[in-house]
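Work Package 3 (structural annotation) set out to generate three-dimensional models for the target panel prioritized at the project kickoff. During this period the team completed the workflow that converts sequence records into discrete structure tokens, so that structures can be stored uniformly alongside our sequence database. As a representative example, we reproduce one entry of 137 residues exactly as it appears in the project archive.
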Amino acid sequence: MKTLYKIFFCSFFLISLEISAQLDTLNYLKQFEANKVEYINQPFSKLLNNMIQIQPKSVWGGMSFKNKSIIPFSRFKFCEMDESFSSNIILVVVWQTPLPVSETDYYENKNGFFFTNDEKNYYGNKIVKDIKVYRSH
């Protein structure tokens, strides 16, 4: 019975840590959303440079239903790749000028959706139109 209590306590503790980390990430990123006027009509690099505590770990293009050749927005995720399809925190950046799918596909194929220095350089000079932060379900 003691072993069962230990397992329960450890599981509860680990879940609490994960929820706390997600809330911290959500609260941190919500600050950027609240201050988005500082980033709208600015290069994405300005936002990235101000993200001192955490950086995106992956980037996913948001397809346009009207035009399959452009990416009007990108979703930046802050979790490990194996957690990308579960509940996590997402920063959506809507681009002033939609990005060509051919360019974003190149980086997705090259780096497997990971947000590397290649992506930082590519997205860094793109102009931000809007910022939204939410937790996926």
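The first strand starts at residue 58 and ends at 62.
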